[in-house]
Specification:
This is Alcohol dehydrogenase-like N-terminal domain-containing protein. Keywords: Metal-binding, Oxidoreductase, Zinc. InterPro entries: ADH-like_N (IPR013154), ADH_Zn_CS (IPR002328), GroES-like_sf (IPR011032). Its cofactor is Zn(2+). The structure is a single chain. With 218 residues, the chain is α+β, with helices and mostly antiparallel strands. The chain has a single domain, classed as Medium-chain alcohol dehydrogenases, catalytic domain (Quinone Oxidoreductase, Chain A, domain 1). The protein contains five helices and nine strands; from the N terminus they run ββαβαβββαβββαα. The strands form three sheets. A five-stranded antiparallel sheet has the order 8-3-4-5-9. Strands 1-2 form a two-stranded antiparallel ribbon. A two-stranded antiparallel sheet has the order 6-7. It is globular. The structure holds zinc ion (ZN) (2 copies).
């Protein structure tokens, strides 16, 4: 299953990674789900799945901009450089449509399905953190835009098992930031034990994360 897919797609590529980085609009090769294996922990290595057959190629319509992207491009966190992992585009709040489906996941996915790309592109699915709904602590987590190509580009491959569906009625530009900033707030509100009628205060409520918290709490 596929649709018309160009050889090259537009991308916001990080140039001069570090304190003086810039983002340059360039054309990059559109990846093939069947050939793509991330430098950092291949899909098969992480969960005994075949990298040939269980990825989706997604055409993104939107990406959010998150401060973590800036840190990845500045390389001012204690994480390896994006470029060391062959990653040229940051970004982890994407929304778009499936344009190609790997052979083994065609029962679950079809061309045209709407999808969201989140900060974790994949996890191991097989550790205590993953089993207890805390997969953001998975030691083998594959970070989008750091370990694997991010959402500052038109075309991206993503493991079918860990790709989020976007329901009808939610526009792409709303769905994109839900992948990171609103999810962060959603989990903290769930864990806070707050009940309807309680007051809640968000320091930095006008920022990208806080504004999601206010809407969710309301
Ligand atoms: Zn983020
Ligand atoms: Zn895990």
């Amino acid at each position: 299953m596929s649709t018309d897919i160009p050889k090259l797609g537009w991308a916001g590529v990080v140039v001069n990674e570090g304190a003086e980085f810039t983002v340059e609009v360039q054309k990059l090769e559109v990846p093939e789900p069947s050939e793509y294996t991330p430098e950092y922990g291949t899909v098969s290595e992480m969960s005994n799945r075949s990298p040939e057959d269980d990825e989706l190629l997604v055409r993104l319509n939107v990406t959010g901009l998150c401060m973590s992207d800036v840190h990845y491009m500045l390389n001012d966190w204690a994480v390896p450089k994006m470029s060391e992992m062959g990653v040229r585009c940051a970004g982890h709040e994407g929304a778009g449509v499936v344009v190609k489906v790997g052979a083994n996941c065609q029962d679950a996915w079809k061309v045209g399905d709407r999808v969201g790309i989140k900060p974790l592109l994949d996890v191991c699915h097989n550790c205590e953190q993953c089993w207890s709904g805390r997969e953001n602590y998975c030691a083998k987590a594959n970070y989008t835009g750091l370990h694997s190509p991010g959402t500052y580009q038109q075309y991206l491959v993503t493991p079918a098992i860990y790709t989020s569906r976007i329901p009808d009625g939610v526009p792409d530009e709303v769905a994109g930031p839900i992948m990171c900033s609103a999810s962060t707030m959603h989990r903290s509100l769930v864990e806070s034990g707050l009940k309807p009628g309680n007051w809640v205060v968000f320091p930095g409520g006008g920022g990208g994360v806080g504004i999601q918290g206010i809407q969710l709490a309301r």
